[in-house]
Amino acid sequence: MKVKSFRHARLAALALLVLLGGCVRLIPDIAGAPTTRLAPSAPETALLAGVRAGPGVEGLGLASGDARLALVSFQESCPKLLVRNDVSGLTRNGDWQPACDAATRWHGDAQEFFAAHFETVQVGEGAAFATGYFEPEIEGSRQRQPGFDVPVYGLPSDLVRARSGDAQPLESGRMPLGRYDEADRFVPYFDRAEIEQGAMMGRGLEIGWAKDPVEFFFLQIQGSGRLRRPDGSVLRIGYAGQNGQPYTGIGGLMRKRGLLGDGPGQYRGSMQGIMRYIRENPAEGRALMRENRSWIFFRELTGDGPVGALGVPVRPESSIAADPKFVPLGAPVWLDLDRAEADGMWIAQDTGGAIKGANRFDTFWGAGEQARTTAGGMSGRGRALLLLPKGTLRRLGKR
Known about the structure:
Layout: H1 46-49, E1 51-53, H2 64-81, H3 97-105, H4 110-117, E2 118-123, E3 127-135, E4 137-141, E5 150-153, E6 160-161, E7 177-180, E8 186-187, H5 192-196, E9 206-210, H6 213-222, E10 224-228, E11 234-242, H7 250-256, H8 271-280, H9 282-290, E12 296-300, E13 319-321, E14 332-337, E15 344-350, E16 360-367, H10 369-376, E17 379-389, H11 392-396
């Protein structure tokens, strides 16, 4: 079962960094762990990967507290779930109506709700791999002041997509992001090194200032977070856009270069281990970070959040990121992993740039130091089941 108190969480030392916020996130292979990407010949939807019936929901051993949290997140997902297009091919909007109607009126045992309205489905082989993400909190300020010199930029107006004919389309068919220079030529947007060297200074784009460039680098990869100001107040920031430059996971680079290992005195393949290397080797660390040319622009967030790709707030220990080609966003997901704190029921409410393929997930752990530690150390393997409205398998001809 998921452990609802962080005090009892089992922690390890593997980190995958995440880009969240505006509902787009990248999860690089910081520790060299697989970032499951679909090969050209791999099945591209759940139906193509194959689905079959799993055990009854009542046999999963769902804990009552876990079920209550999952039910709340499912209720919040229903307005979106009922209108969005399910690209996995598994469900239609109307399939969810009975469960969503019941969820709004449900006052009984949450375990009974899931048992009454859902059946379990295994996608492909069912072998799951799950990482973790969190909402980081770092020291920052709204205005620049001594010790707070790292600019947090809002989205620049000159970051645009190329006009047709001015650049080669991307594989997706969309035109690339970049800018037009003074001669009206389309060129790549400023990369990380250029931005750090002042390419965007003096334009009034700063929405805040961070204290620590290393912490801000990792917050950028997460894609949203909190700036804790000197007076103790918090400025929440979320993803607004990206500069169009390629993303490079520095953990993968470090592993390839033999900078990470498990031996005495070596830097561990975790977020903490990579930070330690950067701080103890400042010149090399700065150069390493700049090899990730991607830069994230932010906007100030107000209200509930952070918000996931489904358009609803993601909740600690209840929300999970998944590939929508294999999991309908809004659907419950059951995990049984070798990391006990991640076992149990989650609701798919988010996506990630490296969360690709069947049974690849990213678990959300909230904000604060414990969330950071748990998410940074999350690397779980085991089994996954989707919970779909009863009758789905019969309609699909799988029962």
